[in-house]
Amino acid sequence: MNMVDKRIKVLLIEDNPGDVRLIQEMLSEASDATFDLECIDRLSAGLERLSEGGFDTVLLDLGLPDSEGLDTFERVHDQAPEVPIVMLTGLDDATLAIEALNDGAQDYLVKSHVDSNSLVRSICYAIERRKAEKHIRHLNSVLKAIWNVDKLIATEKERDSLIQNVCDALAEVQGYDAAWLGLLSDGRTFDMVKGSGFREDISRFRGDVQGGNHPICIRNALDRSDLLLVMDRSMECSDCSFESAYTGKEVVVIHIEHAGKLFGLIAVSLATDVTADEEEKEFLKAVASDIALTLYNRKVEEMRSEMQKMLLQKGMHRKKSCGPSCQRAYRRAFLRYIR
Fold first, then answer.
1. Residue 327's pLDDT is what?
2. How far does the chain reach from its first CA to its final CA, in angstroms?
């Protein structure tokens, strides 16, 4: 595992000066990673330091002056549940190790058996495993949102409520800061914008978008044929209503499109520590596709109903069907719509 391009910030909570020096030497010998090590000799001080954040991992001695055993781990884990913890002990106790791993520790090292390679490997693997666990939780949250959206599609008949509820479902995804969805009346004019999760008042953003003052993410999405566009962290957001909140984060913008017709755009703003991978992009495309198909089917049904009313008014509706001329008129209207 190569982490040479990253400085790994490690908090060591250890009261034995000899063990501290040994760990410092081991980490300084690493060739595949660079470590910034901060050492604290009491659990209480370690918990206070952890509350300030900024660490990639914790090396934790289970035998401290103010705490011993698994209770030490549990208190650290409760304070910083997202930070991977590698436990250090002088006891080769398999039962304790299993309990600790079951409770959420990433690894358990016996001090007398540790060398530089095993320590570095344990730290790097702990960080990568925690990232993988977090990513799995995030994708599960996305899948839950897709299920909720499909449920909404089946039950919510009113268009505006459906769109708002879709935004709410996406904003609840772990790792998404906000979501908005806009529907187009033509190729570039939005007649409705809904959103959820925004810290600022969305009315200003809605006014800008519906008034044609589109930020760069919308302009790029409308100008390109790609179904999905990722605006990366370096994008220029100076012309956006949400510049202060979302600059430096990835924004994924997806076409709501079916049968060659663009109905609108849906976008999600990702948290600072989340990057959309290919699997997640496919999930988001599926959400947009489901919404597009629903809008398409509802529009077709509306057109069919309107055509039937028109034919009835003109006396052309006979025996639940119409002749070739009205069928051709219906097809022409339908083709104009889908184009």
1. 59
2. 52
- State how far the Cα of 180 lies from the Cα of 195, in Å rounded to an integer: 4
Query: What's the rounded Cα separation, in Å, for the pair 190 and 183?
Result: 6
The pTM of the full predicted model, rounded to 2 decimals, is 0.73
Give the residue among 92, 103, 42, 37 at the shortest CA–CA distance from 70: 103
pLDDT on residue 331 = 61
CA atoms within 13 A on the CB side of 271: 12
Q: How far is CA 224 from CA 181, 192, 219, 220, 262, in A?
A: 18, 21, 9, 6, 12
| Strand ranges inside 76-171, DSSP E | 85-89, 107-110
Angle between helices 159-171 and 116-155 (to 10 degrees): 170
Q: Which CATH superfamily is domain 156-295 in?
A: GAF domain (3.30.450.40)
Distance CA 96, CA 89 (A): 10
State pLDDT tens for residues 263-305: 999 999 888 888 888 988 999 999 999 999 999 998 888 888 8
Q: Which two tokens stand for residue 221?
A: 């999405």
Integer angstrom CA distances of residue 237 from 198, 215, 229, 278: 16, 7, 15, 24
Q: At what angle do helices 116-155 and 278-313 cross, to 10 degrees?
A: 10
Extents of the domains making up the chain: 3-132, 156-295, 302-338
Phi, psi dihedral angles at 30 (to 5 degrees):
-65, 135
- CATH code: domain 3-132 is 3.40.50.2300
Give the single-character DSSP code of 175.
T
Whole-angstrom Cα distance, residue 258 to residue 275?
Answer: 27
